[in-house]
What does this fold into?
Amino acid sequence: MKSYLVIGAGRFGTGIVKELHKQHCEVVVSDKDERNLELLDEYSTHAIVGDLREGDVLDELKIDQFNAVFIAIGSDAYSAILITKKVKERKAKKIIAKANNREIGEILQSLGADRVILPEEEAGRKVARQEMLTGVIEYIEITKDISAIEMEVPALMHGKTLNEMNFSRKFDITVSLVLRNGEPILSHFADLKLQPGDDFLLIGSNTNIEKFKKKYK
It folds into this structure.
């Protein structure tokens, strides 16, 4: 089972803890405010009240044993910088840190953060992207050029199967699952005749997804 350390139990950290719990991971969460930790009691494996800017607290946690460390305290730039440095010194396998702006993000990366999250900027991009991708139910940016989208199966594809249409080869897009009545069909869906109301999850380059949507809009 994978294990993670989440430093900071604000809204951002809370979202991380709950999702990791949902994925059946072991989650250790730390915050200076005990009240924040109490709200996450059912979602965390272990909670630590304390200031992780203190080296001795970090030493007790055995940082190098976690699959990744999330530093979710972007509102306090000084603490985020100091903790990132200390966590890196303690051989963290992977560091994912929140930053409120690009300048702080660059500092965190220079100190060893493997990934820096700019929540407001990423949320803005996602909203704009969803608006541009008319008909998209859900949009997930995987990389700058690769996305995953959930969308309703176009009417022109109803009554046909993905194999009949040679879908993946024709559009160079992967269908990872089909949703029918809100329930996922994970296997053998390539031979399933698509019906009105079906949704599917597509993964591919933004360029290929756009070409597909223009053809079937």
